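User: Protein kinase domain-containing protein. Structure?
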Amino acid sequence: MDCETSETKENNLPSDFVPPPTPLLKRIGYGTGVSVYHLDRSPHNHTIRSPWALKKVNRQHEASQFQDRLVSEAKILQELKHPNIVGFRGFSKTDDGRQVLAMEVCNESLGNLIEESAENGETRFQPDKILTVIAGIAKGLQYLHEEKELLHGDIKSHNVLIKGNFEEIKLCDFGVSLPLRTASVEDYVGTGAWSAPETLDEGPLTDRADIFSLGLMIWEMLTLRTPNVDVSESVSFSDSFDSINIGQHYGETPELPGDLTSDYNLVVDIYQWCTQQLYTRRPTARDILDKLREAGIPLNMSPPQITL
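Assistant: Predicted structure:
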């Protein structure tokens, strides 16, 4: 099969790999309209090659906006080089014409870890784990906002990938990302339960929208629940905001649990700062990193990405 189609050439995206048929792959994740699969690559020239994650548009959505989003995500991801952003590996098509984005593989999403913790009867993440996630995401957002002038546009736990025992924290899913200089609130897609109040109203659209979403992700780790959605215990974490779609609390700042101990004080301070209703009162990603440094939290960079 020749993967170098005219459409792929027009997109200026690498297309030098042949995606295996879906039945041969193990699904490791999913999102609205897409699924993610694990690909173990064969050795090349007697060298072991790193595995990839393949994101494919589901068959029922192959002629929809999700194809366009995947192309957009591939174009954006190809230009991003940062230890706290998932690495781009390639872009191609299946035999039946569906787009495939290849990325570095990570262990699990933060959303899955939150769901597993809830199912195991835990009440919240430990403060050191939460601060590690905050630091990793803030570093990724500082790069996006300041160097690339991009709004991620869909910060939530299922779009954060974890390697090992929180050794590496990486942002993923850039399908609805927007240029900060030119985009308006009408262009914003996001996910309602994590959206900042101004994105649900008349704007403006700024980098502080991502910061509010980060704050709600902190709340997720403190409660093991989906923010701003009232659901029964029988509804799972991962589908509560999709299937129930209760929007009356979107954009709110949810209350924190009343039993947090003093070792969560820094986490609470950052949460309250990030989720200010007035966007001008929220910190930048740089501000969050400065606060962590002042508190003595280590901000060592993650190991460099493997580009095999």
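The longest helix spans residues 127-147. The radius of gyration is 19 Å.
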